[in-house]
């Protein structure tokens, strides 16, 4: 061990969630270290954003840069439900202000976010692999050990933030997660240099396939389409066992599609396809003594509505404010982190509930819309608005922007908690007398 460093917060992982929480805490004046295993730019899947992210991207000062670099995304074009007619939803129908998101090349987007965290004051070390979480076994996380440049380094910190994505470097040691068996999927995808755009050429295509599974089509640029097939993990495993390649399974799915197959020439399908596990899960808690989890390390929901980065960075935004408050006033720590967990968990629950409902492709379009309106509790007659609000994240913007870990809402909770404690104490006293 070469040295011992000390920080207020150390973040494991420099993906979108880690760079958000790290950058915002550094901006608030805290000493922050972000440790990232890879050297950026590095490849990552998850290329389509939603408009619910724009308030945060505005806070981070990145909107103009995204507009300059990436393809605009105007909405979602679907072929889904009992009616075989394609349909679409436009982001602008939920908000005239946040009317477009972006389709991004992740290597570029993530590097932009990480460099932004640096410029906000965070210390970033790439090619730094976190191998030990100090104190995880005793119940209170106090820091970690990482390897960089062939040497081991030790860091102590008030908080460790787990933003390590599916690796769950800290949270796998400090909490359990609930794997959602009905959403145990896998994705097979590739990139096409030539393709025929769909009618609304800046939309993401989401298409249910006869026989099961669904396709995404993400127009990254005029000459790059990301095309992916999501199917139950068991089905792919069986096919591979029977000697079929992942490419063949992708092509079978493509042949069964109606729209995706009109976009590309199957002969252009790359020989080597990418695959990733796509298994939804939700951690029992997003925080504990000395640690907090955000992004995929906290929970992951099927990418049907491209919600992953929005959920991850929203949690990071909430966590930054909760940790800022806890660092300033340790007495309020429990309360701030409880509030963070409650608001963040609600976002995941809403999306999970809806993805599960939507995964049944035999319903009427009106049913999908109405269910979305119920979940978002929109005070509107328009289930169409409810649908776009939910799948774009716009419906949750007020909760995110207004989040105050110790605000009036928080005070109400504290008062209730204290009243309950006082009641319990007087009941104990009465019993003792
Ligand atoms: C098939 C598929 C399609 C998807 N499509 C979309 C989409 O269209 N839109 C969308 O928004 N989301 C999508 N997602 C989800 C999205 O990819 C994730 O939600 C998002 O990347 C989460 O960001 P994160 O910062 O939490 O984690 P990540 O982006 O995974 O970042 C975690 C970082 O931690 C680093 N790390 C891990 N372990 C260590 C360690 N021990 N030490 C140091 N560093 C470490 C990793 O190198 C990585 O850079 C998709 C996911 C899948 C599987």
Give an overview in words.
This protein is α/β, with parallel strands linked by helices. The protein has two domains: 4-70 and 105-177 and 281-361, FAD/NAD(P)-binding domain (3-Layer(bba) Sandwich), CATH 3.50.50.60; 180-279, D-Amino Acid Oxidase, Chain A, domain 2. It has 14 helices and 18 strands. The protein has helices spanning 16-27, 54-59, 63-69, 106-119, 171-174, 233-241, 246-256, 260-263, 308-328, 333-358, 365-376, 383-392, 397-401, 408-432, and strands spanning 4-12, 32-36, 71-73, 75-79, 87-90, 101-103, 123-126, 128-134, 143-148, 151-162, 177-192, 204-208, 214-221, 224-232, 274-283, 287-288, 291-293, 299-300. The strands form three sheets. Strands 1, 2, 7, 8, 9, 10, 16 and 17 form an eight-stranded mixed β-sheet that branches. α11 (365-376) packs across α12. It is globular. Bound molecules: flavin-adenine dinucleotide. Flavin-adenine dinucleotide binds next to α1, β2, β8, β15 and α9.
Can you tag this structure with a few keywords?
eight-stranded mixed sheet, FAD/NAD(P)-binding domain, binds flavin-adenine dinucleotide, D-Amino Acid Oxidase, Chain A, domain 2, 433 residues, single chain, 14 helices, 2 domains
CATH superfamily of the largest domain: FAD/NAD(P)-binding domain
How far apart, in Å, are the first and last alpha carbons?
58 Å
CATH class of the largest domain: Alpha Beta
How large is the count of helical segments? Answer: 14
Helix content: 25-40%
Count of spatially separate domains: 2
Shape: globular
The residue-averaged pLDDT reads: 93
Strand share of the residues?
25-35%
The biggest sheet, with number of strands, parallel, antiparallel or mixed sense and barrel status, is: 8 strands, mixed
CATH topology of the largest domain: FAD/NAD(P)-binding domain
Bound small molecules, by name, code or SMILES, are: flavin-adenine dinucleotide
